[in-house]
Specification:
The complex is a heterodimer of chains A (309) and B (361). The N and C termini of chain A lie far apart (68 Å). Chain A is globular and about 60 Å long. Chain A has 13 helices and no strands. By secondary structure, chain A is mostly helical. Chain B is mostly helical. The longest helix of chain B is centred in the last third of the chain and has 28 residues. Chain B contains 14 helices and two strands; from the N terminus they run βααααααααααααααβ. Chain B has a single domain, classed as ABC transporter involved in vitamin B12 uptake, BtuC. The chains are: A mainly alpha (309), B mainly alpha (361). Chains A and B meet through helix 4, helix 10 and helix 12 of A and helix 5, helix 6, helix 11 and helix 13 of B.
């Protein structure tokens, strides 16, 4: 086979693996910039995945499935927000609880769907562009969410850095006391940021059963929610870093499916370990210098805030 | 209208009441869920929560499943007290099972009393080694231990999968992905004839007592607790944060590794692609519900174990999917975290504010 026949499928499936990571990490990034650490991404993704699959299966409309996934993600995020923002619960513990709850809830809700399949999201086709040799299949034949995720990264970057809303969210993340003293609604905006993160995590979860493998498998996110959390650190809380990191990780993730083509004779389990090992590796690289984290991390990340204190 | 008001001091009564409130709320939600599923709530409640533990065999199963939860939970609680977040106990358990299993398989011709202790030591060391990775990366490279320990869970699962599909596969096992069955000398002795509970349960009780002593009677345990509650004070007193991280990870890794050996040398009897239905994660809930106290962990493990065997019982008798167990576990922790609000706050009826009226003479 020519290198082209190996490279194009590899690069194209990289985009598929990167998209849910971008979506989930972008949501978590906004949540964390507002000062809230939600470790429940994995749980919200699973709930979104099962909701998206179930609704698509019963209605036949994938757009309704995607909507349901976002709503399901938001619903679980609302539980988290209520516990940590209104009831002042510890964010780390509550995030872990959300993940465990999501794992349980999705396994329970998805029990009847094993073995069923749905029509995956259609791939877009752009006139002329999709037919360009090499570049066509590489850039212009994906499903809509691949492009949407990239646009979203641009939009979040613009929102955070160029708008008043973004400035306020960052202020709340750095110093909720000061933001509150000026008169900004800290708790309300944190609720919004957490819900935004939940919607995107739900959407990211739905991408798995609706595009990557068009069926529901228990625990199918396989740690992607945690990798998304790591990506936010890797990106030092900046949207463009998330996109870069997600594509790097996407490539590492799909390597196992293309390794034989590349002539690598390694047991599949070791190739499957790569995304997890790579996550650890980049976390070490980025955290090695405490200054990098200290300068970029939202100052109030993980701390509770009560307006009357 | 009720208003929240900060208590002058944390309520000790609420600290103990909160897990009970959470358990009650979970049972209530469970009953509602059962009726939603078309079951008669009281009957379903009986089948799920009472019947499994109403026979001697059932109690044996309860203790059997509580054993890995106690082992993992006691270790995690020590770390959580010091705000060291090891959430990879399931991976350390898996590596412990692999290490213990390798000893059993290597000495499969040997029928001596030292095989089993050697397996336990190997399992504890395996769990410690796996836990040492996040500890090293946290202390040396400032890397988030939550993410690293969690990532290593997946790596451990894959390693076990590779071993039972490859090098450790039973050559006479019809190509099933599992190792040989362990020989008699590599299996934990049963406590009572006819029940599956084994000596690992006694081991977990001994370790619980040891952990209690460590927490409340030793200076190292005290230092760890201060570091968790008041990091600034701990730093001022010169308590080393690095030492806490290492201690927390090595202890919880060792106990999780022991739990792994307890599973493969106990009810399982061989290495299989999966040796834990998520005990290491359920132990996080156990640690919290047990108030991060060794004795509390013991009680919480029994409750959590009841959720596991109740789920199996409900699946067999009522055709309720056993996945409901995970749902209950998550709910329990949510309710606990919500109820914990009242340790630091209390409701105060909003009363008309009385102003002092200046008097004029």
């Amino acid at each position: 086979m020519s290198p082209e026949h190996l490279l194009i499928p590899f690069l194209a499936s990289t985009a598929g693996a990167a998209t849910p990571l971008i979506l989930a990490a972008m949501g978590e990034l906004v949540t964390e910039r507002s000062g809230v650490l939600n470790l429940g991404v994995e749980g919200m993704m699973l709930v979104g995945a099962v909701a998206g699959f179930a609704v698509t299966l019963s209605t036949g409309h994938s757009s309704l499935g995607l909507l349901a996934a976002m709503l399901a993600g938001m619903a679980t995020a609302l539980i988290f927000a209520f516990l940590v923002l209104t009831l002042q619960a510890n964010q780390v513990a509550t995030g872990l609880a959300l993940t465990l709850f999501g794992v349980g809830l999705s396994a329970f809700a998805g029990r009847g769907y094993a073995g069923q399949t749905i029509q995956p999201l259609p791939h877009l086709s752009f006139p002329l562009l999709s037919d360009i040799p090499f570049l066509g299949p590489l850039l212009f034949r994906f499903d809509a969410l691949v492009y949407l995720a990239l646009l979203l990264a641009l939009a979040v970057s613009w929102m955070l850095n160029r708008t008043r809303l973004g400035l306020i969210i960052r202020a709340i993340g750095e110093s909720p006391q000061s933001a509150h003293a000026i008169g900004y609604p800290v708790i309300a905006l944190r609720y919004c940021s957490v819900l935004f993160g939940g919607a995107l995590a739900g959407l990211a979860g739905a991408y798995l059963p609706m595009v990557l493998t068009p069926m529901w498998v228990e625990g199918m996110t396989a740690g992607r929610g945690w990798i998304a959390l790591a990506l936010v650190v890797f990106a030092t809380w900046k949207p463009r870093g998330v996109v870069l990191g997600a594509y790097l990780f996407g490539g590492v993730t799909v390597l196992q499916f293309h390794a034989q083509g590349f002539g690598l004779e390694i047991p599949s389990e070791f190739l499957s370990m790569l995304p997890y090992l790579a996550t650890i590796f980049v976390l070490v690289l980025i955290s090695r210098n405490p200054q990098t984290i200290l300068l970029n991390k939202p100052m109030s990340l993980g701390q509770s805030f009560r307006a009357d204190q | 209208m009720l208003r929240l008001e900060a208590r002058p001091a944390p309520s000790r009564a609420m600290m103990f009441a909160s897990p009970l409130i959470a358990a009650a709320a979970m049972l209530l939600t469970g009953s509602l869920l059962f009726s939603f599923l078309g079951q008669e709530p009281l009957h379903a409640f009986y089948v799920y929560f009472i019947k499994p533990a109403s026979t001697a065999y059932g109690v044996g199963e309860l203790l059997l499943k509580a054993t890995p939860l106690i082992l993992c939970g006691v270790g995690l609680a020590l770390g959580f007290r010091a705000s060291v977040w090891n959430i990879g106990a399931d991976g350390q358990l898996t590596i412990g099972a692999i290490a213990g299993g390798c000893v059993a398989l290597y000495f499969r011709e040997v029928d001596a009393a030292w095989v089993l202790p050697l397996m336990l030591v190997a399992g504890a060391l395996g769990g410690m080694a796996w836990a040492a990775i996040p500890a090293l990366l946290r202390t040396r490279y400032n890397t988030n231990e939550i993410l690293v320990s969690l990532m290593l869970v997946y790596v451990a699962y894959l390693l076990l999968s590779y071993l039972v599909h490859g090098p450790l596969r039973d050559p006479h096992g019809f190509n099933f992905p599992q190792s040989r069955m362990f020989q008699e000398a590599a299996l934990l002795p049963l406590l009572v004839e006819g029940l599956r509970t084994n000596v690992a349960f006694i081991l977990s009780l001994v370790l619980t007592a040891g952990a209690w002593f460590f927490c409340s009677r030793s200076f190292i345990g005290y230092r760890m607790q201060v570091s968790g509650m008041a990091p600034a004070a701990a730093a001022y007193a010169g308590f080393s944060e690095k030492r806490n991280v290492w201690l927390a990870f090595l202890i919880s890794g060792a106990t999780a590794g022991l739990a792994g050996v307890g599973e493969v040398a106990g009810p399982i009897g061989q290495l299989q692609p999966s040796v834990s239905p998520g005990y290491g994660f359920a132990a996080i809930i156990v640690a919290y519900v047990g108030r991060l106290h060794p004795l509390g962990v013991l009680l919480a493990s029994l409750l959590m174990s009841l959720l596991y065997i109740g789920g199996e019982s409900a699946q067999m008798e009522l055709q309720i999917p056993s996945a409901i167990t995970g749902l209950f576990q998550g709910l329990l922790l949510f309710y606990l975290l919500a109820a914990d609000l009242f340790i630091h706050y209390r409701f105060k009826p909003a009363m008309p504010v009385l102003h002092a009226v200046p008097t004029t003479d």
